[in-house]
Amino acid sequence: MQTNPDGQTLDRHLTFQEIVLPLRQRLRTSLLPLAALCVLIMIPLWYDNNPGLLGYILIALGAWLSLAVWSAHGMGLPMLPMLVLQTLFTFALPIITRNETLDHYPAELLLPAGLDVLLFCLTMTGTWALLIRQLQPGAPYCYALQGFQKDGVKKLRGIGLTLISVFTVYRVAQMMHLTDPLFAALPSGSQAIVSALTSAISVCGFFLVAMLIGGNSMGSGQRVAFWLMFALNFLMLSAGFVLSAGMLLMGAVFIGLLWGSGRVPWRYFAFLAIILSFLNFGKFVMREKYWDPQTGSGMQEVGFADMPAVYSEWAEASYLLLTGSSDSPASQTGFGPKEEKEGQSLLSRVNNMQNLLFVMETIKYDNAPLLYGETYTLIPPLLIPRFFWPDKPRAHEGQILLNVHFGRQDLQATFGTYIAWGLLPEACGNFGPIYGAILLGICLGALAAWIEVQTSNKLLFSLEGLLGLVIFMGVLNSYEMVASVLVTSVFQSLFPVILGCSPFVERQSTVRPDAY
């Protein structure tokens, strides 16, 4: 973000293309070090006779080639490199760390799985590269946020802090059951609509303020207030012992700090990694105690006033599991899955390779029939708001279908918990390992190219910019989702942003004037 030395003049003409240019340059200079790092990682894998070595090489090769292509031709919202890095982490990291879940599958499948990921990356990048040259950019105008001609930073601060405050007040009221009478009087499905609205509001607000913090455009008191509200919202969102509930919030702040400063916010990233890793160890113990043993989801309610005691207990459980103490609550129960007794590290959680191996094994050795797109046909009905269709299918119906069809769960078990899949394993379950990877790569490559071209000449501080951010954050948070969950969650977030921002935008040219 461009400001003058006193941090008070906002560059209201900043476009996505201008933001992406320095990112491309930095990525281009990092390609050789990245290649060297990938080669260095191969050495311990070879030394330890890791059966996934060849699979890792294919995955790393596909990711590196994709990043190299984008660094030469990227022009807008960086959807492609984000998808590539997401794929690299979720499929290569389990091999690098020798995740024990991979030992449950035949080692001979690791190479075909790596080839599948390579095909996905190359197909996605090839489709993107073809379309990025063919698609025409959007018209040179956008619906810019009003009021930035004068005192731009001040007004942006006000909008961002207001959005954050509204979301925080709503979450506190919800946890204190102050909203229960309101939703009881409203039609069924109203709470889901309000939740989607407030979630979209929070993403926009935290992104805007984080970007100002990255650009040194916030006072010390405002910074303190921002980080306190961020911490409070993270704790409230994670109070159900589902850490992924706060991923969208954390991602919005990360992207805001990155775009505002032009540098990766390593301190923020490292701090979150430590906190998430620590809490991840004890979450299964807490779920065992607080979640309904029959359904696994209807947890005993954790109210706002209960949070200090609950998080103190959670921290104690994580500490005891981390140190291997015999006083660990999990060790005293004598039952439950292995993760409940030993804890689960964050690295163990980031693992889509096991899902890909599972579906490949089931198709190859158990002759499970393919679904031929059945999970994708669920998307249109799921887009209908529950307000209009109270009995519509569950939001995770795609995951349910995959888990039941391939024998991972029976239908009754799906009412207790949802086993994650990811977009690539889902595609393989529908069309087979090779064809699924190719078809998914074509679809995501086309989507990434279209979004990048359409946002290239749009202002960052515009309705189009905020919508692009919502889509970007939704896809960033999709590594465990199936397509129906991804599409419906993004769809539900877009409309609140449109409705909320429409009164505050005006049609404006995106062409930068010679002087301003």
From TrEMBL:
Keyword tags: Membrane, Transmembrane, Transmembrane helix
Transmembrane segments annotated in the record for this chain: 31-47, 53-72, 79-97, 109-131, 156-173, 193-214, 226-259, 265-282, 434-453, 459-476, 483-505
Domain of life: Bacteria
Protein name: Uncharacterized protein
Organism phylogeny: Bacteria, Pseudomonadati, Verrucomicrobiota, Opitutia, Opitutales
